[in-house]
Amino acid sequence: MKFETTDDLAAGLRGAGYAADPVMVQTIWLATKMRKPILVEGPPGTGKTYLAQACAAAAETDLIRLQCFEGITDKEAIGSFDEALQRLFLETQGAAVDRDWETLRGQLHGLDFFIQGPLLQAVLQPRPIVLLIDELDKVDQKFEALLLEILSDWQITVPKLGTVTAKSIPFVVMTSNQERRLGDPLRRRSLYKRIEHPHVKKEAEILDIRTVDAPLELKAQAVGLAQALRGYNMVKAPSIDEIVQFVCALQLLGRTEIVAEDRDVLMPFLAKTEEDVKRLLLRDGFASLVATALEYRDQALAAMKGGRAGVPDESR
User: Fold this and answer.
1) Is the separation of the CB atoms in 109 and 83 below 8 Å?
2) What local confidence, expressed as pLDDT, does residue 316 receive?
3) Which CATH number fits the domain that encloses residue 155?
4) Do 42 and 57 sit in the same domain of this protein?
5) Which letter does DSSP use for residue 239 in this model?
6) Taking a C-beta distance cutoff of 8 angstroms, is the pair 6, 29 a contact?
7) pTM of the predicted model, to two decimals?
8) Pick from 180, 142, 127, 151: which is nearest to 35 by CA?
9) pLDDT per position in the chain (316 positions), as tens?
10) pLDDT of amino acid 313
11) How far is Cα 258 from Cα 245, in angstroms, rounded to an integer?
């Protein structure tokens, strides 16, 4: 990934729908220049995954994603030999291959017979891509250690296959919801950024970038509702992306404002647990949130108008 200046990167991220503050832009730019991974921590729904997607879009390159989960092994992350293909090769080509055991073993244990996982795919790309290692806090320390060779030396050592050196060095974004504290060796190799749920002005900027066609007043009220919901002690507060989808739904319904009477049809976009549904169904629960949203609306509207005043039309 090559961005000549931080301004080039900022413009690329904005064009991809990501509103990055100057510090974040500089951190990403330095990471690309110094070939360092970025570790992004914060609550679920704050845009950590979207950051990686936006970086790939801004650089006009591919994104390869390793979705972490409890119990993940090197087989899922790096890959494994295709034993069925090896057997098929011996059965169909056995008479024609070199009968020397070392030569034959070298053939069978080459990349042609290896099913590549996301990590190996990333380092074998002919040009730099973005590698997203998502929800890294779900794995154990053993798996963390597996990543150290890649992030330090940009190579992967696999039994029988040998050491595979990167053809190009990917830009690595690792995300964590902090279900478990990640180890210090991984942290030391990374540039660290924490992302929280955005404040009113920040979310107004994000929503304005990602829902260009929606009326400003509707988006401003949606920002207010997001802020109100996150202060409502919900089990799962709405993410930035869910608020974007919420605004899109309002547009499809032909709404120009959020009203309490639309509560039931809008509920699937805002409440994702049984407990949260019950809270929003309480008498005056949703109505009070709509009223609270109006308190934030003017602040969000001013932020959107101010942002538009400073951005040329062709960049939007």
Assistant:
1) no
2) 33
3) 3.40.50.300
4) yes
5) P
6) yes
7) 0.87
8) 151
9) 678 899 999 999 999 999 999 999 999 999 999 999 999 999 999 999 999 999 999 999 999 999 999 999 999 999 999 999 988 888 887 666 666 667 777 778 889 999 999 999 999 999 999 999 999 999 999 999 999 999 999 999 999 999 999 999 999 999 999 999 999 999 999 999 999 999 999 999 999 999 989 999 999 999 999 999 998 888 998 999 999 999 999 999 999 999 999 999 999 999 999 999 998 888 778 889 999 998 888 888 888 887 665 554 433 3
10) 41
11) 14
Write out the residue range of the structural domain in which residue 284 sits.
200-315
The bridge status of strand 63-67 relative to strand 191-194 is unpaired
Domain end position, chosen among 194, 228, 247: 194
Residues 102, 300: Cα–Cα separation, whole Å: 69
Q: Quote the tokens at residue 37.
A: 């991974």
Count structural domains, the chain.
Answer: 2
| Domain boundary residue, one of 165, 194, 223 | 194
Judging by DSSP bridges, how do beta strands 38-41 and 130-134 pair with one another? Answer: unpaired
By CB neighbour count within 10 A (0-12 exposed, 13-18 middle, 19+ buried), where does 69 fall? exposed
Q: Give the pair of three-digit tokens for residue 226.
A: 């997001």
Nearest in space to 249 (alpha carbons), one of 198, 290, 211 = 211
How far is the C-alpha of 214 from the C-alpha of 222, rounded, in Å?
Answer: 11
Angle at 130 between CA 173 and CA 184, to 5 degrees: 25
> Bridge partners of 176?
41
- What phi-psi label fits residue 83: left (phi over 0), alpha (psi between -120 and 50 degrees) or beta? alpha
Outline where DSSP puts E strands in 102-227. 114-116, 130-134, 155-158, 162-165, 171-176, 191-194
How far is 193 from 206, CA to CA, in rounded Å?
18
- AA identity, residue 118: P
Asked if the structure places residue 149 within a domain, the reply is yes
Neighbours of 130 (CB within 10 A): 24
Together in a domain, 163 and 218: no
Identify the residue whose tokens are 């919801």.
177
